[in-house]
Amino acid sequence: MKNSNILRILMILVSGLLFIQCTSDLEIPDPIAGPPGMDGIDGVDGVDGVDGTASCVACHSNATREPIEASFAVSLHGSGSTFARGSSASCAQCHGEAGYIDYITMGAVDTAGYANPGMMNCTTCHDRHSTFDFENDGFDYALRNIDAVTLVIDETTVIDFGGASNNCITCHQPRNSYVIPAENGTGKYVITSTRFGPHHGPQATVLEGIMGANLPGSEGYPGVGTATHRTGSSCVACHMGESTDINEGLHSWNPTEESCITCHPTGAPDEINGFTTDFEALGTLLANVVGEEYMEDVDGNPMYDVDGNPIGNGTPVVGIIVNGRSKTGIFTTAEAQAAWNYMTALEDKSKGIHNPGYMRALLKNSIEALQ
Length: 371
What we know:
By secondary structure, this protein is mainly alpha-helical. 36% of the residues lie in helices and 8% in strands. The protein has helices at 2-23, 54-57, 62-73, 76-79, 92-95, 97-106, 122-125, 134-137, 166-169, 203-208, 228-232, 235-239, 257-261, 275-287, 333-348, 356-370; strands at 149-150, 158-159, 188-191, 290-294, 312-318, 321-322, 325-326, 329-332.
């Protein structure tokens, strides 16, 4: 009896639903969806007998992915320490995935910073392909940026290394926290931070041969963009060579010997001739420079007289650069320029190899200016 009542109720409900469906001429609107959009562009027809996914599988396979992931894990980019400060708005552009992606896609980071900036991973640099016609357009590797880069430190300067290497410039350039010292008529320069210099990665500008303090001296400065590594190689060619060792090439970004011997058959040097000698000599001179503490206003900023000269308080400051960090104070413009060049060499980390002629001129002319 109980089962009979249940069946009767079910039959009534089904009949009611069928009645509503069959007698209703109205289309029930979707309260969320808007009007239909425009039709998309038709895709390119495939070729008979050719696997349409073959070009995808060539890269998107375990055999390709596994050595990439393994080499990335041993790199500084993948170790995590590089991204320890990614929560700060001033650092997020390069020290956190969220800030980097915002900078690439929107041209700026969130001024409020990031509570959870995220570790660098594949999606930090790679998003989606801009083209699938690799044969005619070349491989973009789904990189977030392959276009020329406008420098942060100087918005009138654009560097174009071409293709994938442009993605490197986004972070491997000096940021605009500090002004390159230049003669302003007073002969003085005020350093207000212990992080004075081209923080943190001037690799791209050194390779291009720009953004140093070009002090006059016995060494001539090569033309912009004329370095052999600039004209005959690239970031990717030198730092991402093919390798069976995950500690070299690939996504470890450590140059392989094979990448070098193509042009250096007798073996690539670890530094340019005389780099360590000149670098250490310049460091010693900078550690002995004597400047002066500056007077501060109520906000802790340097004070200047009516002619724009910084006002000192008479207390000497010994050393403009000591152990790789700057001291605050009033120094001569030439001393500040030499300090800038020292920090450029320190932060570049290639020991002059990126641009031998330019680095040699920066170091030697800075030494002469201080002697």
